[in-house]
Design goal:
The chain is mostly helical. The chain contains ten helices and no strands. The chain has helices at residues 2-23, 25-28, 39-46, 52-55, 71-86, 91-105, 136-139, 142-154, 164-172, 184-194. The longest helix has 22 residues, at 2-23. The protein is globular, with a radius of gyration of 25 Å. Residues 3-45 have low confidence and may be disordered.
Length: 197
Amino acid sequence: MNTIMRKSVLGIAGLAFAGGVFAGPATAHAAPSVESTPVAVAVQADTPSVDEGKLIPHGVQGAQSHVDLSDEQVTNVKAIIAATKKAGMDERAAVVSIATALQESKLENLGHLGDRNDHDSQGLFQQRPSSGWGTVEQITDPEYSTTAFLKGLKQVDGWQDMPLTKAAQTVQVSAYPDHYAQWEQQAADLVAEHWNS
């Protein structure tokens, strides 16, 4: 009887051990003390979160697109956010700006594309020197081009209460006005991730 009982206890202990190993590092290496504080909690306390309701106040419209970003594209996201803050505008303005740049250039600071160019459009927002957006050097500078876009956005009465695609289209005057909407979720996610970084 002792042998059977010992085998049962060892078997249960073995199952508990195996369960811990297969459950993954979070449970297998859990801190034994209740008093320890996870690092993530301390970091979250130092970084205020972005109000998700401000990012997409009307909900997304239609199917959403997504592109994986390179380091250069993330740098451009951060430049757009910095210019938005410098202009004294909020997170929603950054969402509209990033969604617009995603549609226009996939967040790549494009120079003249030769035969593939849409007239003389360049930069993150595909702004045109011939339409008064600035010189080529200016509109291919992320801070300048974002500031120029935001200046146009500020002139749109009630842009904060418009669907993103209408606000962006009013500034951009695109041949494809509804295409901005597909980038709203990714733009909001990027603002949530980088606004306080």
